[in-house]
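Quick start: read one record
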Amino acid sequence: MENEIKEPKTYLNYGVITGLILIVLFVLYYVFTLYTNKVLGWIPTLVFLVLIIIAQVNHSKALNGNITYGNLFAVGFKTACAAIAIYVVFLILFSVFVPSYKDQMMEVSRQAMVKKGLSNDQINAGMAIGKKFFTVSLIGGTIVIELIFGVIASLIGAAIARKNPQPQNSMS
């Protein structure tokens, strides 16, 4: 094994850090009811995007740019997946141990339906479906939306990070 370069596990480190930061932001938003502010609601998404890109840039630096666009994309995507996994586990635990969270989110949904001018029958039907599928939609929605943003960040980060892959010497 000639001078095999061991790749750093940047994606795992940044994935854990990103997941934990998302959890802290979630708790802050919950405690201070910031989730109702649409502008502030984008902050966790921006943090998620930026940390994925930083992970890719630092991974490229650790390898002195000896990495391809595809491999950098993979680092970003793995970072996103690790962060999402940690965040989703937290969301499951939070929704189990803090049942008032579901009630608060259902009330936010009710207010949004009232604001749209829906009838009481429509609101009650929507609330019944929302209560029934709350956990599934919380988890599924989080995974799908965060994966989409993870792919976007991975594409951007792979384009931004320095790439200067060295040709591999193959011995035939």
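The chain has a mean pLDDT of 92.
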